[in-house]
Structure to design on (449 residues):
């Protein structure tokens, strides 16, 4: 069957989409600013929730953030330094199910060359108008997409050839979204993503929806069946969510402050084709309301399992959605040595984690208790080291000392490639972060002895 692209101008890598530009809710007109634009860093210490009930595309995310209050001039100024041309930006007003939303349009006016991953990376490094935070987020998003495409096509990341995703409109989408997210500085939380079905006409033959590269970009991201034949999550939407979102929730515990709407192009039969973003304050300074119980701990005592089986059980629990899983040596009745298997999970993942524990362990039952969880606001930063580009998870902006942790897998790959110990790559990444941050961040000091 033919596949219709349900969002805007964004393309899937290597695919030929049938684009729809009808506007059942009215014709597009020029979008007008809400008049109370946000300042840089307005999201520091706050949550930005991506309510993706109709999926997500790069253009929808940009439009929603502008409707939220990110000045469009900030995006335009950053893009002016991007060494690509032949396009014009427009922000338009669209109505979806009676909701007035913003639309982001990139009118391509000149033919664009085919770009590979190295070319896009060079473009981003050569853009003087990008902050290091925005550049790092955009690089991370394209790196995720390049790794996914390399796996799909059985080639190396460096040799990946981008076609439509390498076109100027998709590059602009990713960079504009990275600029807007970095401008806000909020912790990004995303809902589970709805996945459409159907088939896609591709250059090498039909592909199932969602496309293989999109699925690979979403590894570890919660998804669910949308029940419709449509592409709801585009490749650039997928890599942006994976690069920017620090956690996923149906709705985070927060006090909403303002919201914005970004609309796709086409009309969906069962839902408005729009993305809602909500900026809010956590329910306490550390994101926990006294007496709240957003998570659960599941426990089982076993005295007849080997260590290998216990380890396998805990691994299955994490695959089912547990945030952490561990074992504790205990003594049971009649002095028997035993293990207590424990797993921490979001309340919404309780059933799946419980089934995994009961299926894999020898226990006939579980204890479940409510717990609250304090989470520091986190963001991803990318730094350049002598061993390559390394992403770090940074916790700051909440009045506590900063905590910086390099991504282990990237450090491991870099260490293997350059034949150095992983700890050496770790140290280089952390040093590069504090050098890059300059006077804005002071590294933790060793106590005097």
């Amino acid at each position: 069957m033919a596949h219709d692209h349900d969002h805007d101008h964004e393309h899937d890598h290597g695919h030929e989409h049938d684009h729809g530009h009808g506007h059942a809710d009215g014709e597009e007109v020029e979008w007008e600013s809400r008049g109370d634009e946000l300042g840089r860093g307005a999201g520091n210490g706050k949550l930005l929730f991506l309510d993706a009930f109709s999926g997500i595309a790069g253009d929808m995310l940009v439009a929603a953030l502008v409707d939220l209050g990110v000045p469009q001039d900030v995006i335009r100024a950053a893009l002016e330094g991007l060494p690509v041309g032949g396009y014009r930006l427009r922000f338009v007003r669209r109505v979806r199910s009676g909701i007035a939303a913003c639309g982001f349009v990139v009118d391509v006016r000149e033919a664009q060359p085919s770009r590979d991953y190295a070319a896009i990376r060079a473009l981003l490094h050569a853009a003087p108008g990008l902050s290091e935070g925005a550049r790092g987020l955009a690089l991370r998003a394209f790196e995720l997409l390049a790794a996914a495409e390399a796996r799909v096509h059985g080639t190396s990341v460096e040799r990946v050839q981008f076609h439509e995703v390498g076109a100027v409109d998709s590059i602009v989408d990713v960079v504009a979204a990275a600029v807007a997210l970095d401008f806000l500085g909020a912790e990004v939380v995303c809902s589970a993503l709805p996945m459409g079905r159907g088939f896609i006409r591709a250059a090498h033959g039909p592909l199932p929806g969602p496309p293989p590269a999109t699925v690979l970009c979403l590894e570890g991201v919660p998804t669910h069946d949308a029940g419709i034949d449509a592409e709801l999550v585009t490749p650039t939407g997928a890599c942006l969510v994976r690069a920017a979102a620090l956690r996923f929730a149906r709705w985070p515990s927060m006090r909403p402050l303002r919201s914005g709407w970004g609309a796709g192009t086409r009309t969906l039969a069962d839902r408005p084709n729009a993305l809602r973003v909500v900026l809010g304050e956590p329910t306490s300074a550390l994101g926990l309301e006294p007496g709240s119980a957003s998570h659960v701990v599941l426990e089982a005592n076993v005295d007849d399992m080997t260590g290998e089986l216990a380890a396998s059980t805990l691994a299955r629990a994490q695959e089912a959605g547990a945030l952490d899983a561990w074992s504790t040596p205990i003594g049971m009745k009649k002095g028997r040595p035993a293990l207590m298997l424990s797993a921490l999970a979001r309340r919404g993942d309780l059933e799946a984690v419980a089934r995994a524990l009961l299926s894999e362990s020898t226990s006939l039952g579980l204890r479940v208790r409510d717990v609250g969880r304090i989470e520091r606001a986190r963001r991803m930063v990318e730094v350049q080291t002598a061993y390559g580009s390394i992403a770090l998870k940074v916790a700051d902006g909440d009045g506590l000392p900063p905590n910086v942790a390099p991504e282990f897998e990237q450090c491991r790959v870099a260490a293997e490639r350059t034949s150095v110990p992983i700890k050496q790559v770790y140290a280089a990444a952390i040093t590069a972060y504090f050098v890059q941050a300059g006077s804005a961040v002071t590294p933790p000091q060793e106590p005097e002895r």
